[in-house]
Amino acid sequence: MTATAAHGYTLDPAWHAERERLNSITSLYDPHTLGCCDRLGIGEGWRCLDVGAGTGSLAELLADRVGEDGRVLAVDVDVRFLEPLARPPLEVLRADVRSRSFPGDFDLVHARLVLEHLPERSSVLRAMVGAARPGGWVLVEDFDWSTAGAVDPPSELHVDQLAPGMIAAGLLEESDVEDFHALWHDGDTVSFAPLMVSAWGRKP
Description:
This protein is of the alpha/beta class. It has 6 helices and 6 strands. It has a 6-stranded mixed sheet. Helix 2 (18-39) runs parallel beside helix 3 (57-66). The chain is elongated and about 55 Å long.
């Protein structure tokens, strides 16, 4: 069973350029996410749960905010990029949030670009709320795909990753991929990435 099939995730985490793809996302969205966390009051001593932590770039930023008296638990099914970052206050846990519960003592529970991939998103969201302490915050960020003309800023990464499977399924021809690359990098084509929607709530 592939990682994609096992985790219900279209984009294979074992792909050779997965780190580069994830970095292109984190560099674009980390500042906004951290701004949301600052708006919610994150500070010294906070306990944070980062669900689907990816490369850990946001978890590191959160660790800087909470300081040595705080805690950041970075959770993902694939922790190869996270494990080298593990040092107090940043902890790393390999876990599938669809089947794992967490103690309800976190000041902030965050997930970005996670729930949209999961058919079980409602139960995962309930588990995230359950992991927040009374008075704690849950912050969820996902794309509004109705605002997008294409997947990414100018980059062939998603197409290169998905094209082999789509060609094998008869959804694309090789010529379609070549035409896309030519259009995407012609210098004249303008496209819009999906709008990131950030929503938060406080647990009673």
